[in-house]
Amino acid sequence: MTMSFVPSLDVRGLAYAYPDGHQALFGVDLTVERGERVALLGPNGAGKTTLVLHLNGILTGGAGTVTVAGLPVGKEHLAEIRRKVGIVFQDPDDQLFMPTVREDVAFGPAAAGTRGEELERAVTRALERVGMAGYADRPPHHLSFGQRRRVAVATVLVMEPEILVLDEPSSNLDPASRRELADILRSLDVTVLMVTHDLPYALELCPRAVVLSEGVIAADGPTGQLLADEELMRRNRLELPFGFDPTARPTRNPAAH
Amino acid sequence: MHVPDGFINTPVCAAAGVVAAGAVAVALRRARRELDERTAPLAGLVAAFIFAVQMLNFPVAAGTSGHLLGGALAAILVGPGTGVLCVSVVLLLQGVLFADGGLTALGVNITDMGVVTVVVAYALFRGLVKLLPRKRRSVTVAAFVSALVSVPAAAVAFTAIYAVGGTTSVPLGQVFTAMVGVHVLIGVGEALITAATVSAVLAVRPDLVYGARGLTAPLKLRVNGELVDAPASPAPTPAPAPAHRSVRALWAAGLGAALVLAGLVSFYASASPDGLEKVAADQGIDKNVRDHASADSPLADYGVSGISDPRVSGGLAGVIGVGATVAVGTGVFRVVRRRSAGGDDDRPARSSEAPRETV
Amino acid sequence: MGAGHAHKLYRHGHSPVHALPPHCKLAAVFCFVLVVVSTPRTAIWAFALYAGLLAAVAVLARVPAGFLLRRLVFEVPFVAFAFLMPFVVPGAHISVLGVPLSVPGLWDAWNVLAKGTLGVTASVLLAATTELRALLLGLQRLRLPPLLVQIASFMIRYGDVISDEMRRMSVARRSRGFEATGVRHWGVLAKTAGALFIRSYERGERVHLAMVSRGYAGSMPVIDEVTASRAQWTAAAALPAAALAVCLLGWAL
């Protein structure tokens, strides 16, 4: 198959301005190979979320191209693209819009035409992968924040995506939930693009990182190396937590290699 | 103003139900035009907002408080179709989940509070926005006037429904005076809050106010730190220049004054049988009206010894006056709708992003 | 006002009334109220029978009387209105303890109070025995336009989220020493309402993005369906059928 030579994600010269006139992207170039886990770093307002919304064709019409697994993002392949690109949004309340967890996870495959037993099986499997199978009939607003985030991941996993895009996955999580989510993400066998300014989390989960600044990619390289570049970090308003040494060997990072 | 079961007779409830169903059907179609397939989530969230904002109490004085009804606000912020849907859904759920408002009176409640409020408010708002100069302030003024009139208009509609199908024998004039009187006062509060809310939204996200327009700038690429034009930049759309500002301002002042007075006077008119005709003849009468207001509190002798003939005739004059207001409003609404169907003049700012959103 | 998780009227339980499909219950309550409002006001005994019927349903549903009575507060504004009627309605007057009361006014007050109270009680029983989600499915089953059901469903899903945001904004205001006491503070409260609208609208846009990201193309996929057997319909029909018999008797006598 030629698919294995095609990168999961290929972004070329992407520029975009919002209808209110604010321009967020000024020519982004980014390639993510199959099976890679890449951290997308950058300060607030760098255009990270805008870039994410281009990946499954929610925002289009600016300049440049986005290609997902060889398929150009555009009107003709939209349904296919949206199945291949699974976006987990920052606020799980936005993502979990159905009355119960089960219906929420079922929403995607049901919209794609899956019904009955098969749908039920897919939902159960996805909930098991995030350890939430016991909560299927609960309304989302009865869950804790960490549980809601995991269900949000399940709603995307159930689609068997080519690339999983996570927008600030560790935000608002307590340390235990953070750990649980990291374990889940490591156990998945998909390409991951993780938007974050949680630098230790990026180092722990992603061997490669790119820095988005003022609407362009300002740096691209191994995560540890980028984080150790103090000048680069300072210029892009990225600060490591006090006492954190990116060059030290991580003690728990089995999947980074 | 939630009407309970048994207050309006069954045939009229059924008729109001048919009217409400028809209006909701029209609103569904129109809302799809306003929001595309974003209708369900956006209208749902706006309905949740209306529901929440009705819980936001505005202290009046000495421990009493009122709250926003939200029909005018919804109409102005998200458009008439979505507005009718949001208010109707709120009323439906209040009836089914909270037993607030009778189930058989649901049609009456939706027609009255959902449809009349929203349609009157939006028709007036669009009329005024078209007439007033293209400034942020005009939108606020238009929001104020339309909210002010929309609440008593709902009271008038209620009185009309009561006149046809009321099960009690409280004299019509008295119902009218009480309903419209109280609701003019409520309308003033509604108008102040609606206008302030709309102007607050306008200051932060002008593109979210249905009817306001956004401007787009050409795309740039950052190449070696320099900004250059992107190849596929869409042409900026300049705002149409406001023509004949002085004529428009004159019209606006006239229409605004007439409508405010029609709304306010309908209830002062009960104390002065010929008040409305005077207003119609001479728009410089507001000083006169204020005299009436201070001389004769509308509720001062309400419900004591029945109702004297001049009051009835005054009330009827008010019915006719506000009825005419509603009719004019509906006419404006029709014209606006037809124009929006024909050209893209009435399209909201949001629609400018439609070609970009391939959803 | 606190925004609870579930809606405030629902009482969890496993009674036969709870077990009925939602659309049967909705239809039954609606028909019951329709019958009640069509009953002549002079048939006082008929209203007593209706109250008895509702009491029987409440017992069957194991909804305590105290719960029902507390929920009748929704009626308070109209009770006040009804109490005015004997004073404002013209017609023959009788004197009660020296206060002249209008006879037609008393009948009007009785009419509105009796029918209104029965209507509210029936609705409260429905809401107390039916879950939110089930009510929506029931409405959908009763052919309410799907878009309307979706809007209602989103409103319920996000009602609490938005009320919470409103409460947080209020806490933030008060933490900075602001206490709304009168009309001159309306500007601040209106700004709150404006900010709340923007947040709600933007959340609506984000929810829409999340939906289209998972393949939404304008219509909700069918995931759950409610169905009712003939026996369930018959059970639900018992209430309006009994009421109808009472009503017909009321007209005949």
Automatic annotation (TrEMBL), chain A:
Record's subcellular location: Cell membrane
A Pfam cross-reference name: ABC_tran
Main localization of the protein described in the UniProt heading: membrane
Keywords of the record: ATP-binding, Cell membrane, Membrane, Nucleotide-binding, Translocase, Transport
Plastid is among the record's keywords: no
GO molecular function annotation: ATP binding
The keyword Nucleotide-binding belongs to this UniProt entry's keyword annotation: yes
Location of the ABC transporter domain: 9-239
Membrane topology: Peripheral membrane protein
Transmembrane segments: none
InterPro entries: AAA+_ATPase (IPR003593), ABC_transporter-like_ATP-bd (IPR003439), ABC_transporter-like_CS (IPR017871), ABC_transpr_CbiO/EcfA_su (IPR015856), Co_trans_ATP-bd (IPR005876), ECF_ABC_transporter_ATP-bd (IPR050095), P-loop_NTPase (IPR027417)
Alphabetical list of NCBIfam families matching this protein: cbiO
Record family assignment: Belongs to the ABC transporter superfamily.
Physiological role: Probably part of an ABC transporter complex. Responsible for energy coupling to the transport system.
Record's protein name: ABC transporter ATP-binding protein
Automatic annotation (TrEMBL), chain B:
Start and end residues of each PDGLE domain: 248-338
Transmembrane segments: 7-28, 40-60, 72-98, 110-129, 141-164, 176-204, 249-269, 312-333
Compositionally biased tracts (Basic and acidic residues): 341-359
Subcellular location: Cell membrane
A Pfam family this chain is assigned to: PDGLE
Positions of region (Disordered): 338-359
Keywords per UniProt: Cell membrane, Membrane, Transmembrane, Transmembrane helix, Transport
Keyword check for Cell membrane: yes
Membrane topology (UniProt): Multi-pass membrane protein
Protein origin, superkingdom: Bacteria
Protein name in the entry: Energy-coupling factor ABC transporter permease
Signal recorded as keyword: no
TrEMBL record, chain C:
InterPro entries associated with the record: ABC/ECF_trnsptr_transmembrane, ECF_CbiQ, ECF_transporter_component
Superkingdom of the source species: Bacteria
Membrane topology annotation: Multi-pass membrane protein
Chain ranges passing through the membrane: 20-37, 43-61, 73-96, 116-136
Keywords from the named record: Cell membrane, Membrane, Transmembrane, Transmembrane helix
Places the protein is found: Cell membrane
Pfam families found in the cross-reference section: CbiQ
NCBIfam families documented for this protein: ECF_T_CbiQ
PANTHER family reported for this sequence: SLL0384 PROTEIN
Protein name: Cobalt ECF transporter T component CbiQ
Taxonomic lineage of the native organism: Bacteria, Bacillati, Actinomycetota, Actinomycetes, Kitasatosporales
